[in-house]
Amino acid sequence: MKIEVTHVIKADSQIVSLVNAFLSALGTQSENLSVADAVELTPKTSVEKEETTKASKRTYLFHEESGAAIVVNKGEELTEHLEKGLVEISKTEYDRIQAEKQTRIDKAKEQTNVAASQSGDGQSSETEDHGITMEMIRAEATKLTSNGRQADFKAILTSFNAPKLSAVPEEKYPDLLAAIKEAVGEV
Question: Which of 137, 130, 141, 138 is CA-nearest to residue 171?
């Protein structure tokens, strides 16, 4: 009996072993067929595509070390965040974390206002020159982003309806600085 293999595209060693075992069970001489010779192996230079996981729903994540809480929307990449040590939390837990963060920001704003009023400059808070410069804000922002917390910084900017730092109005500098300091942990 002669078996002819006309097309073999890809096979692994298990398939080769199975075919040889099949031929042996049939009692067929395999001298006319060398299965190993007929197998075209996958080139070693091929790069296999990494598996990625997209969020199937709005997902809330938390990083215990930094205290960062983020939202990954449906269809956005999830694997990258999970590899960084973020864990999934409930929406209720996310809301609680955000409320605590806002409380700390409000407390920092209040402390800034108290310090400004104690300076005795006599100006009203509406026309007060807060004395906070963009350089001061950038310095604090650098502390935050150098720790790998760019997502937190972006979230802060979003809360001020600003796509970038230079888009934040000067009158909001005290609030912005307080929010960044709170995220860095200096409050």
Answer: 130
31: tokens are 């001298």
How many other CB atoms sit within 10 Å of the CB of residue 181?
Answer: 19
Which residue pairs, CB below 8 angstroms and at least 24 apart, start in 167-173?
168/137, 171/130, 173/130, 173/132, 173/133, 173/134, 173/137
DSSP state of 54: B
Contacts of 154 (CB under 8 A, 6+ apart): none
At 53-86, the pLDDT tens digits run: 888 888 888 888 777 788 888 888 888 888 888 8
Report if pTM > 0.70: no
With CA atoms as reference, report the closest residue to 176 among 116, 145, 133: 133
Are 153 and 177 in contact by the 8 Å Cβ rule? The answer is no
With 0-12 CB in 10 A as exposed, 13-18 as middle and 19+ as buried, what is 118? exposed
What is the C-alpha separation between 16 and 11, in angstroms, rounded?
7
